[in-house]
Amino acid sequence: MAVTRLKRKDRKNKTVSRLEVKFLKLATNIEKGSRSAQSTTDQLAKNNAILAELAKA
User: Fold this and answer.
1) Taking phi first (over 0 means left), then psi (-120 to 50 degrees means alpha), and beta for anything else, what does residue 39 get?
2) How many helices (H) and strands (E) does the chain have?
3) In this structure, what is the dihedral angle of CA atoms 40, 45, 50, 52, given to the nearest 10 degrees?
4) Which one-letter DSSP state was computed for residue 53?
5) Could you give the C-alpha distances from 23 to 12, 16, 37, in angstroms and in order?
6) d(Cα 41, Cα 45) in Å, to the nearest integer?
7) pLDDT of residue 55
8) Over the Cα atoms of the chain, what is R_g?
9) What is the DSSP string of 9-34?
10) pLDDT digits over 2-56, tens only?
């Protein structure tokens, strides 16, 4: 069976859907009550806490 090339529209859809998935994986949604709320134990939260303490002083 011969390998067929994708038509231009299908190649575009493939690329767009791949980029959409990449964007959604990178997207962060930090809101109150959100399932993806920022953890209090991750490094970013620790850094922010330290910076807040230094800003007070």
Assistant:
1) beta
2) 2, 0
3) -100
4) H
5) 16, 10, 18
6) 7
7) 93
8) 21
9) HHHHHHHHHHHHHHHHHH-----TT-
10) 777 778 888 888 888 888 887 777 765 555 555 666 677 888 888 888 999 999 8
